Hints:
Layout: H1 2-13, H2 17-33, H3 37-53, H4 57-73
Amino acid sequence: xxxxxxxxxxxxxxxxxxxxxxxxxxxxxxxxxxxxxxxxxxxxxxxxxxxxxxxxxxxxxxxxxxxxxxxxxxxxxx
Length: 78
């Protein structure tokens, strides 16, 4: 699923926030399916950035909060 996160980041850098969000959400769903905690945290971070780019501040905060919690839980407090 990490490849989807990377593609999401590329889309965001290219200015395509909606594509970045779509890819990020796909990555997040797949990462959850496999319970890959690191990938969940990375995908949630990327979703947060995409949501910010779309002006979805509260939804971005939710994604960032999830990422921070997962990073903390796996011993990487940022």
